[in-house]
Design brief:
The chain is mainly α and 230 residues long. The chain is 77% helix and 0% strand. α1 crosses α6, α1 runs parallel beside α9 and α6 packs across α9. The N and C termini lie far apart (52 Å).
Length: 230
């Protein structure tokens, strides 16, 4: 049987996903051993990331093939900003501090805008791809943030966490509402895939592989307490 477009994309990032599941940041979420400083680093950078991710989704909406797809991506862009404002505000209230303050996990002040190297690189790649590439390329670039979080949420939901903050984060990505959004995007990918040449599918899979790696790097940056070296 022919490989669906979504299957082709996932195959490009599956090895990275296995490394994500094995990462000590995620293991620390489920057993409760992850230092709150590392989680705070993640939340701060995720707040910055989601602002540009919302912009990337808005560009996907502008290039989407049908009116329903335009509305769906526009809604997802609004949802990304809502997540940044609501969920992260709740976490920061518990952890202490302001996501916009730009303070590392070690309490060290960062650059004025607070955006650290991995976040800057990831969002720059996303925005460059959605602006300059085809709709299929842009979709493939934004898809790991949907799909990997959904898979991670499903994987971790059964285990949850003894830490209430981490249990809340896991529940947010493992619940059916988020899973249904991801299924809708995958259905679009497979509908689109039948119209693409093999060269177009390979280019899109290449973008998927890159942003899947950035997902691993994002958790790793929080685990390491990444900061600007100079």
């Amino acid at each position: 049987m022919a490989t669906s477009f979504s299957e082709q994309l996932w195959a490009a990032g599956d090895a990275v996903y296995q490394q994500i599941l094995a990462h000590p940041f995620l293991r620390g979420l489920t057993d409760g051993s992850l230092p709150h400083a590392a989680f705070r680093h993640f939340v701060v950078q995720d707040s910055h990331y989601l602002r540009d991710y919302a912009r990337a989704l808005a560009v996907c909406a502008a290039k989407a093939p049908t009116e329903d797809d335009v509305r769906a991506f526009a809604s997802d862009a609004v949802g990304a900003l809502a997540a940044e404002q609501e969920m992260h505000a709740e976490f920061m209230a518990a952890l202490g501090g302001d996501p916009a303050a730009g303070v590392s996990a070690q309490g060290v002040s960062q650059r004025a805008d607070g955006v650290l190297p991995t976040t800057r690189a990831y969002t720059s790649y996303l925005l460059a791809t959605v602006y300059s590439g085809s709709f299929a390329e842009g979709l493939a670039a934004v898809l790991p943030c949907y799909w990997i979080y959904a898979r991670v949420g499903q994987e971790l939901l059964a285990r949850s966490s003894p830490d209430p903050l981490y249990a809340r984060w896991i529940a947010g990505y493992g619940d059916e509402q988020f899973q249904s959004v991801v299924r809708r995007v995958l259905e679009l990918a497979d509908r689109l895939g039948g119209e693409l040449s093999e060269a177009e599918r390979r280019r899109a899979a290449g973008h998927f592989a890159v942003t899947a790696r950035y997902e691993w790097m994002f958790w790793d940056a929080a685990w390491r307490g990444e900061s600007w070296p100079v």
